[in-house]
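Per your request, structure below.
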């Protein structure tokens, strides 16, 4: 029986953690998430482990990490089941970069060697463990790219077993939807849940609807939420979760264990 376990095309990046004076590990939200052993366990449970080694994810230079992310995706192209990045613009940026570098990536695959643009020893060492001469794969990628019209349908062409594309696609990320749909063709776009560095805020109640129609439900057990109505020239006091009105725009006050924080978002629909 053929295994259904695949891999995830994750355009994710992490920075270095540091220690506080109290000895606690600290860093950005995404760095802490991606370094957590639970994250890898969850991806394995979902049968979609990441294609890229940790040295690529936590590389110190973005362009080198992005190049290696793309190369890893091609090496495991038949196993990719989903495409993900935290934000839609990161996916668009990755495939715009691919448009410029695809021939160089094909050369790496054909020769089993790594481009000289990758200079960090740890990244080179990790990638060279994955690379071996594969002219057949290189020719396949070359034919697929050469046969595309203005790169339309690039993602399903390269990753025929991909089922959907996932990330934050609402709010300011809607600016990237047209380009993302161009790359995705008929591949579904699923908008991620609503979160912030201060804590998770809401869940997408129906990921299958078009991203422009996404509706979120606030998760009241994550933190304490208050909402400040936003209207020009008028100051309002915060209202509670049961007092928000459909169609109004709010700033969200999130109180977590570290204290109160304010983050901006728009409320298009509420379910209490």
């Amino acid at each position: 029986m053929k295994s259904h376990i695949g891999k995830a095309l994750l355009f994710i990046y992490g920075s270095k953690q540091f220690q506080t004076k109290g000895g606690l590990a600290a860093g950005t939200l995404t760095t802490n998430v991606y370094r957590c052993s639970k994250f890898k366990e969850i991806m394995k449970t979902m049968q979609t482990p990441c294609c890229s080694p940790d040295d690529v994810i936590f590389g110190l230079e973005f362009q080198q990490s992005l190049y290696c992310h793309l190369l890893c995706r091609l090496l495991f192209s038949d196993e990719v089941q989903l495409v993900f990045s935290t934000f839609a613009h990161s996916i668009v940026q990755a495939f715009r970069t691919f448009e410029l570098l695809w021939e160089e990536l094909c050369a790496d695959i054909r020769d089993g060697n790594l481009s000289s643009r990758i200079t960090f020893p740890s990244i080179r060492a990790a990638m060279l463990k994955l690379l071996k001469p594969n002219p057949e794969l290189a020719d396949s990628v070359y034919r697929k790219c050469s046969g595309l019209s203005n790169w339309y349908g690039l993602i399903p062409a390269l990753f025929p077993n991909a089922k959907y594309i996932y990330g934050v696609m609402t709010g300011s990320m809607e600016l990237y939807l047209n380009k993302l749909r161009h790359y995705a063709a008929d591949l579904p776009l699923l908008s991620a849940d609503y979160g912030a560095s201060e804590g998770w805020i809401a869940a997408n109640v129906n990921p299958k609807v078009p991203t422009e129609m996404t509706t979120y439900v606030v998760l009241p057990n994550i933190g304490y939420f208050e909402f400040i109505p936003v209207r020009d020239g008028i100051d309002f006091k915060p209202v509670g979760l049961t007092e928000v009105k459909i169609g109004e725009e709010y700033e969200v006050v999130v109180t977590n264990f570290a204290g109160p924080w304010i983050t901006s978002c728009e409320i298009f629909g509420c379910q209490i």
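The two ends are 46 Å apart (CA to CA).

Regards,
D.
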